[in-house]
Amino acid sequence: MTSDRKIRLAFWGTAPFAVPLLRSLALDASFDIVAVVTRPDEPVGREQTLTPPAVKSAAIELGLRVQQPESLKDETWAQSYAKLKLDVAVVVAYGKLIPQAILDVPKHQTLNVHPSLLPKYRGPSPIQAAITNGDPETGITIMLLDAEMDHGPLLAQKIVKMTGTETAPELEARLADVAALMLPETVAKYVAGETVLTDQNHSLATFTKIISREDGRVLWSKTAVEIERLHRAYQPWPGLWTEWEHGGKTMRIKPLEISVEPNISDSPGKVFANLVIACGSGGLKILRIQPEGKKEMSAEEFLRGHKDVIGSIVS
Predict the structure, then answer these.
(1) Burial, 239: exposed, middle or buried (Cβ in 10 Å; 0-12, 13-18, 19+)?
(2) If you compute the radius of gyration of the chain from its CA atoms, what whole number of angstroms results?
(3) What gap in Å lies between CA 153 and CA 130, rounded to an integer?
């Protein structure tokens, strides 16, 4: 490859995390992004409005060609992808496993950007895991993709210090900005043959899970500190929620803003004045809350209409 020829690249991504990285490559004169591959549009919200992925919207704004294959096993699409004469591909939060045959299409194969310091936190929820575990740091890994999940050799890593107060969206935005700064130079050096790949220490691998709505249910037997971390990790979805037996019915309520009250000691789930709830250790003060089917409100507003919650047990 001569130095004056642009690197022909395919960018794979779906989620908002990928958008700053796509922009960083698109605005770098070293690259020619010949295809942006993203997931199909999906229905969103109560109206089930067909909505494009964030990466598609960004790609159209940048004037890039978008591909949205329904299936990566579609032979017609795979053949057209193989004809792009790619130097390399980059995958960022695409959200679906890519067959090895597709990964191998580019001359220099396919790279991936992952928001953790691999081999720690392989899998779909590394940002949430770092927050819930109270880690002092996390980071970005750029790696070569292989057939196993987050398993391939490493090109580059960058440590990002954590404050212990960040929510998942805040940490995601910081990591995306760091990755966007790293990516163009890392890819260019790799294609030029200037990178020494480093195998991961697979014996140290840890794995994260797909988060479900049920994961947002508060287990009051956990410590207040643990629940507060979950509150930050599970924003905006699934959020924390708990249930209260009220008037012969079960009311689901979502704590929206909370603070730790370390000196509370009582049965987990016991509700005190000012909407403080006992945990396995310490307690949580609910500052803002949203009852199911109603608008969000302050703790004071909620208590005016539900005074009998004081002294009860939430579950």
Answers:
(1) middle
(2) 23
(3) 22
Name, in order, each residue with C-beta under 8 angstroms of 298's C-beta and a sequence gap of 6 or more.
Answer: 287, 288, 289
pTM: 0.94
The domain 7-204 belongs to what CATH superfamily?
Formyl transferase, N-terminal domain (3.40.50.170)
Is 262 assigned a ligand-binding role in the annotation? Answer: no
Paired tokens of 280: 């396995």
Q: What ranges do the domains of the chain cover?
A: 7-204, 213-309
For residue range 222-274, list pLDDT tens digits in order: 999 999 999 999 999 999 999 998 878 899 999 999 999 999 999 999 999 99
Question: Is 118 annotated among the ligand-binding residues?
Answer: yes
Q: Find where tokens 């507060």 sit.
A: 228
Name the residue type at position 105.
V
Local structure of 272: helix, strand or coil: strand
Candidates 308, 314, 299; CA nearest to 247 is 308
